[in-house]
Amino acid sequence: MADYTYQELADKNKKYLWHPFTQMKEYQDADPIIIASGRGTKLSDVNGNTYYDGISSMWLNVHGHGVAELDQAICEQLKAVAHSTLFGLAHAPAILLAEKLVSLAPPGLTRVFYSDSGAEAVEIAIKMAFQYWQNRGFTKKRSFACMQSAYHGDTLGAVSVGALSLYHELFRPLLFSTYQVPYPDPYRQGGAVAATGKVLVALETLLRERASELCALILEPIVQGAAGMIVMPPGCLEQIVRLLRQYDVLLIADEVATGFGRTGKMFACEHEGITPDLMTLAKGITGGYLPLAATLATSAIYEAFYADYEENKTFFHGHSYTGNPLGCAVALANLQRFETHELLTVMARNVAFVAQKLAAFAQLAQVGDVRQKGLMIGIELVRDRERRQPYEGRERIGVQVCRRARELGLLIRPLGNVITFLPPLASSRTELDEMLAILYQAICQVTEPVSDDR
Ligand SMILES: Cc1ncc(COP(=O)(O)O)c(C=O)c1O
Description:
This protein has helices spanning about 5-15, 25-30, 55-60, 70-80, 90-105, 120-135, 155-160, 165-170, 190-210, 235-245, 300-305, 325-340, 345-360, 395-405, 430-445, and strands spanning about 35-40, 40-45, 50-55, 110-115, 145, 180, 215-220, 225, 230, 250-255, 280, 295-300, 365-375, 375-385, 390, 410, 415, 420. It is an alpha/beta fold. Strand 8 and strand 9 (about 230) form a beta hairpin. The chain binds pyridoxal-5'-phosphate (PLP).
């Protein structure tokens, strides 16, 4: 790769690549950043510029880039075998990782089904929930409920249970229909109590009318990520689970974004001590190294599929690279490092430090809601906080702030008018301080052009 100049790579990038979630016409007008390497919390481009990875390479990275133990785990496994299938065969990394995941997951989740991405883990959970009821003879249970503004990935099943109109609406004719309930948003729904009440009333009404046809409710526990890092009020998730149990409807907890320490606990469900029936995992599972995902199920779910072959209860689902040994090996090393470095304990102190720093952001006239759970942070930009007047979409304020932050050495991405900040979980206090200083400067410079000293 080193043989190519920046310009050659930029030209080939422009000529051959189609980037995700990107308007290529706009992207091609700018000089692309082409990443060459990563160390710790930083990425370097082929021109030698370094940037803090303020979005953990799409919410994945845990211990930083280029971590010796993780690199080594892949190299060791590579010497043995790069890939062997789980279709009828097994291998040690997949077995041992499944054991580890079960030991860490909320009690009662006892089975691990692997796939390659968060969206696939969601597809699998949806199909498992559906077939669970069919296998048990509840043939009328065929529908799903999801939350407003939900995001569960970009494959069609995951899009069906999504509810972000910008990404999902166009595809509506291709999707199965769902029932939607509001996600509790204390900022917009009149505070924590009102937001919780609104959700519970809507959910109970739905359950009373439709429980006999509902397989499951899928939700992003504690934090709704792509909607802008909306944080549930304490106690809400537990009450949602209580209602679902009462009406015999399953819970699918999509922990793709929140799992593996991102919200301050290993899994977000732990904040409320709940066990979902199905739980989806991806992103941080390999520390941000390789694509791997898992859907965890309770024994009750598993047993509904466990039968003589002739009963036709088999779960006919699988992907070629399911449980890839390299991915499983690095996932095991990732989880071991959580323990050896007491990451969640260290992180708790840094989370408090970040909360203190965010207080200063909340004072800025162009900042509305500041949301934080663990190291999952959303800063909403508004034209006028007092009057809660939003920026117009066409102002692209989030894009402008992220561009400026990038010039100052921090890679972040906006979700509309919300700036998302999800640094690697192992970021030191000094690094977090520097990242937040850049972010603060970028917001000030873009939203207050008069005092702009660029
Ligand atoms: C909650 C949630 N579920 C699923 C996904 C999809 O994961 P992937 O991009 O690995 O398919 C995402 C991605 O951001 C997510 O935030």
